[in-house]
């Protein structure tokens, strides 16, 4: 049995968790700072770092107390070292290094994106080879995994990430940041009345582009205003969401057809989207030999439990770091 403590502070959530064997969450303390950033319409890095400093020891205490675990019961300290905001990452990294040094535990460097994917293990163990659709506020990628800890990017976005496009359309609709959940809810009350064009629909491959869609939504609203008309917000949300889902599902279907995988993982903040989960469930009816393993909704957003899951892969592969480990804000696979 391997029990890891994990630290995550890459963006606007400060989190410490304790995870057993990469799939059982013993505790997952998450402090969110969204309220502090909402009035700015996005994360303010300096504000984020200060909040992390304030919360890192509190979340650590809560994680240990909730799991009823003593430091002597732990086997290692997993920590996100990228991608993310450098000032935010540094706080979790310093917390993890200090804890590792104080208790004589090995330090395990974890890629935040691997963490999002590994969180599928909290649903069912991922079956390999696997395809992962990783959709968050900063990334949109189709990742092929032949085995645990083996990541090959098949396709990614050329511009905005899927979550970013939700947040930008949310700003247009005066919804508070981050707007993904609010647009998802609105979409369910509306009808698809606008057929937004899909970027790169005719191109081969597995890449995405969402900035044209965002511009098309803005143009629709402005053109309607000039005609003295208004588009119902619910219909705009439903039409936008349908276009995002069509792009994500189309590329995923192509990859599933081209690569003989045994499971499909849906991960990242946008994996909480109910329309996307439903559309992929429908798609998987055509791939009955492939197991669809979405990350459980409570672990789709940023949290340290997912870092504990990916940290376990590294622990098994004996990937450890020295105490001079630095952040890598632009880290990818
Ligand atoms: O993975 P995450 O928590 O942070 C990053 O690593 O980026 O993802 C946050 C993103 C935000 O853009 C947010 O609007 C989006 O996930 N999101 C959603 C939903 N819930 C969160 N997007 C669409 N539908 C949702 N239900
Ligand atoms: Zn994330």
Please compute the radius of gyration using only Cα atoms: 20 Å
Mean of residue pLDDT values: 96
The total domain count is 2
Assign the CATH class of the largest domain.
Answer: Alpha Beta
> What is the name of the CATH topology of the largest domain?
Nucleotidyltransferase, domain 5
CATH superfamily of the largest domain: ATPase, nucleotide binding domain
Number of helices: 10
Cofactors and ligands: 5'-O-[(R)-(carboxyoxy)(hydroxy)phosphoryl]adenosine, zinc ion
Report low-confidence residues grouped into runs of 5 or more. none
> First CA to last CA: what distance?
28 Å
The rough form would be described as globular
Protein name: tRNA N6-adenosine threonylcarbamoyltransferase
Keywords: Acyltransferase, Cytoplasm, Iron, Metal-binding, Transferase, tRNA processing
InterPro entries: ATPase_NBD, Gcp-like_dom, KAE1/TsaD, Peptidase_M22_CS, TsaD
Pfam family, one: TsaD
């Amino acid at each position: 049995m391997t029990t890891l403590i994990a630290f995550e502070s890459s963006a606007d959530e400060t989190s410490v968790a304790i995870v057993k064997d990469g799939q059982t969450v013993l505790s997952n303390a998450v402090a969110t700072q969204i309220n502090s950033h909402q009035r700015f319409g996005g994360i303010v890095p300096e504000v984020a770092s200060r909040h992390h400093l304030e919360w890192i020891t509190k979340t650590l205490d809560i994680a240990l107390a909730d799991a009823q675990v003593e430091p002597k019961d732990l086997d290692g300290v997993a920590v996100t070292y990228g991608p993310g905001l450098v000032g935010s990452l540094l706080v979790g990294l310093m917390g993890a290094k200090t804890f590792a040094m104080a208790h004589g535990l090995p330090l395990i460097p974890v890629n935040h994106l691997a963490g999002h994917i590994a969180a599928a293990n909290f649903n069912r163990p991922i079956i390999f080879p696997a395809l992962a659709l990783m959709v968050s506020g900063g990334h949109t990628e189709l990742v092929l995994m032949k085995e645990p800890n083996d990541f090959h990017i098949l396709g990614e976005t050329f511009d905005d990430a899927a979550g970013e496009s939700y947040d930008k359309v949310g700003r247009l609709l005066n919804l508070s940041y981050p707007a993904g959940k609010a647009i998802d809810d609105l979409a369910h009350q509306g009808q698809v009345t606008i057929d937004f064009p899909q970027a790169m629909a005719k191109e081969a491959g597995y890449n995405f582009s969402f900035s044209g869609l965002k511009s098309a939504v803005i143009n629709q609203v402005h053109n309607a205003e000039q005609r003295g008309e208004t588009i119902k917000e619910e219909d705009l949300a439903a039409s936008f969401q349908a276009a995002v889902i069509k792009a994500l599902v189309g590329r995923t279907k192509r990859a599933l057809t081209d690569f003989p995988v045994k499971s499909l993982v849906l991960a990242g903040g946008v994996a909480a989207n109910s329309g996307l989960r439903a559309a992929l469930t429908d798609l998987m009816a055509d791939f009955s030999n492939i197991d669809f393993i979405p990350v459980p909704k409570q672990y789709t957003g940023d949290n340290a439990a997912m870092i504990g899951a990916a940290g376990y892969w590294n622990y098994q592969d004996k990937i450890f770091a020295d105490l001079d480990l630095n952040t890598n804000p632009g880290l990818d696979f």
